[in-house]
């Protein structure tokens, strides 16, 4: 390492792509972001254009480096982090996607998941993968793509049928990390965290599972090689004749929530973080033990460094939190997310109003794909301030649902919760979260912990950072929120469960 070298991170999210460059102290020295288009072909369907995502990735990398006056040759490594579960297939030779990517939020395969449950397969799937069968994960999306994607017209003699081409190894399957890593390096690779979110991977054997591949009819020939999250052997290097103009190791990758866990330096058993983005994702490091959940949580791979055991985590996936604030803007109740803090403070309470933001069903610990958004308790006196405050309270209540399930499953009492994501800039929400949970909420100075985590993984792999202790020293507190929990607050939380009950099983096909 020399003083003028850095580590870069591609952070490919649900709404856009960011490239950040970090120095040895973990400080941001370059940053660029671009949004990409969201496609909604039918109600409940969500898609992205992988080609657009790759184009935006190249654009933000160039923009960030140019704006900071950094040469690509000054990058010692690049890490990748990504929206998880979003699924695509592409032609192995041409690199052309066979269909738009199906996004993690997409619900088109709900019927297939219900079929699995009806056939008694849910328990086996959960035992192997740690996941509750849900349309959220990649397996049913991959199955749908192979059944429904139109064959690509090729200029060469190859089987035209999509499944035949998949069996022949002519197609590559991947989540967004695999797509970007192959574009960057030419190698078809994923890391252990992203593999663990596909519902095709046995997290105990740490291998693709033949029984699951057969169930979802996903050919093994399409699958990427699974590697550690921080890989001293590298996934590959960028092409010096490519868009970057330099040969840079791509050596780290984590799904976005595991990247945030890593960026928050939650390296030890009992460490916990919650990321407040489009949804919220609460992860608790359980060490080398894959703790099975009896309370609707996911058991997932937290991270793995080269030559070291896998670290597992319990995860509570809350589908809609920040997206509920966006919805407030969509319906004209706010002009900007920044307004919500003052509006919520302007009233003493929600005046009995509860909002359950089950716009795409409910995740942990409820797992109801047919739940839908609900507002209850309104009267003639209800004003937008009450609905805004109820929206912020729903974020805190959903997080407590998950926290209580985690303590029951793991026997680990969370004493401090490290938070990140766009919503934690809202001090009202952070204090509310502390009050509702009854634990300290700690917000770090660098809140882009997802990008930071993938940079840390890549930098450790190439020796830019030597030890995890170096990374712990980089982590600095911005603000800490101490709980002021009251019996009134606990009663309000209990009433929240009544509101949730009214949202369940709403989207029935009678």
UniProtKB/TrEMBL annotation:
Binding site for ATP: 14-15, 278, 322, 422
Enzyme class name: transferase
Family annotation (SUPFAM superfamilies): Actin-like ATPase domain
Domain Carbohydrate kinase FGGY N-terminal, chain residue ranges per copy: 6-263
Pfam families (alphabetical): FGGY_C, FGGY_N
Swiss-Prot/TrEMBL catalytic activity: glycerol + ATP = sn-glycerol 3-phosphate + ADP + H(+)
Single Gene Ontology MF annotation: glycerol kinase activity
Enzyme Commission numbers on file: 2.7.1.30
UniProt binding sites for ADP: 14, 18, 278, 322, 422, 426
GO cellular component: cytosol
List of residues binding sn-glycerol 3-phosphate: 14, 84-85, 136, 256
Binding site for glycerol: 84-85, 136, 256-257
Sequence ranges assigned to domain Carbohydrate kinase FGGY C-terminal in this UniProt record: 273-461
Biological processes annotated in GO: glycerol catabolic process; glycerol-3-phosphate metabolic process
Annotated pathway: Polyol metabolism; glycerol degradation via glycerol kinase pathway; sn-glycerol 3-phosphate from glycerol: step 1/1
Keyword vocabulary terms for this entry: ATP-binding, Glycerol metabolism, Kinase, Nucleotide-binding, Transferase
Family: Belongs to the FGGY kinase family.
Protein purpose: Key enzyme in the regulation of glycerol uptake and metabolism. Catalyzes the phosphorylation of glycerol to yield sn-glycerol 3-phosphate.
UniProt-listed NCBIfam families: glycerol_kin (TIGR01311), PRK00047.1 (NF000756)
Protein name per Swiss-Prot or TrEMBL: Glycerol kinase
Lineage of origin: Archaea, Methanobacteriati, Methanobacteriota, Stenosarchaea group, Halobacteria
């Amino acid at each position: 390492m020399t003083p003028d070298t850095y580590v870069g991170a591609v952070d490919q999210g649900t709404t856009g792509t960011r490239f950040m460059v970090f120095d040895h102290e973990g400080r941001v020295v370059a940053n660029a972001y671009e949004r990409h288009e969201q496609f909604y072909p039918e109600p409940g369907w969500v898609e992205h254009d992988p080609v657009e995502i790759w184009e935006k990735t190249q654009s933000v990398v160039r923009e960030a480096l140019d704006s900071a006056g950094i040469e690509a040759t000054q990058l010692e490594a690049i890490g990748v982090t990504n929206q998880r579960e979003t699924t695509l297939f592409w032609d192995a030779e041409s690199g052309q996607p066979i269909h738009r990517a199906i996004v993690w939020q997409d619900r088109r395969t709900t019927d297939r998941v219900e079929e699995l449950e009806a056939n008694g397969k849910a328990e086996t799937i959960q035992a192997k993968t740690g996941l509750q069968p849900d349309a959220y994960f990649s397996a049913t999306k991959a199955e749908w793509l192979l059944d429904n994607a139109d064959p690509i017209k090729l200029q060469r003699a190859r089987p035209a049928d999509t499944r035949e081409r998949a069996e022949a190894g002519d197609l590559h399957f991947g989540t967004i990390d695999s797509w970007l890593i192959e574009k960057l390096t030419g190698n078809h690779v994923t890391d252990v965290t992203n593999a663990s979110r596909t519902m095709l991977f046995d997290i105990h054997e740490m291998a693709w599972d033949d029984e699951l591949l057969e169930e979802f009819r996903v050919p093994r020939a399409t699958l990427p090689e699974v590697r550690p999250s921080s890989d001293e052997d590298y996934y590959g290097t960028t092409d010096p004749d490519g868009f970057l103009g330099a040969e840079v190791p791509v050596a780290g990758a984590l799904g976005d929530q595991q990247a945030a866990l890593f960026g928050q330096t939650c390296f030890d058993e009992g460490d916990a973080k919650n990321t407040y983005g489009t949804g919220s994702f609460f992860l608790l490091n359980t060490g080398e033990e894959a703790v099975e959940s009896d309370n609707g949580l996911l058991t997932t791979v937290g991270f793995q460094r080269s030559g070291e055991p896998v670290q597992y985590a319990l995860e509570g996936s809350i589908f809609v939190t920040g997206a509920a604030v966006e919805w407030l803007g969509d319906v004209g109740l706010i002009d900007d997310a920044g307004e919500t803090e003052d509006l919520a403070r302007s009233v003493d309470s929600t005046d009995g109003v509860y909002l359950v933001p089950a716009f795409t069903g409910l995740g942990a610990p409820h797992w109801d794909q047919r739940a839908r958004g609900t507002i209850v308790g309104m009267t003639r006196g209800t004003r937008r301030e009450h609905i805004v405050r109820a929206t912020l309270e729903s974020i805190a209540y959903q997080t407590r649902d998950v926290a209580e399930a985690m303590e029951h499953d793991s026997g680990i009492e969370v004493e401090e919760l490290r938070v990140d994501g766009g919503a934690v800039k809202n001090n009202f929400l952070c204090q509310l979260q502390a009050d509702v949970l009854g634990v300290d909420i700690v917000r770090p100075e660098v809140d882009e912990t997802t990008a930071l985590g993938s940079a840390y993984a890549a930098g450790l792999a190439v020796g830019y950072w030597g030890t995890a202790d170096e990374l712990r020293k980089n982590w600095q507190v911005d603000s800490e929120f101490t709980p002021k929990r009251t019996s009134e607050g606990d009663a309000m939380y209990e009433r929240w469960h009544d509101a949730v009950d009214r949202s369940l099983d709403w989207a029935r096909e009678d």
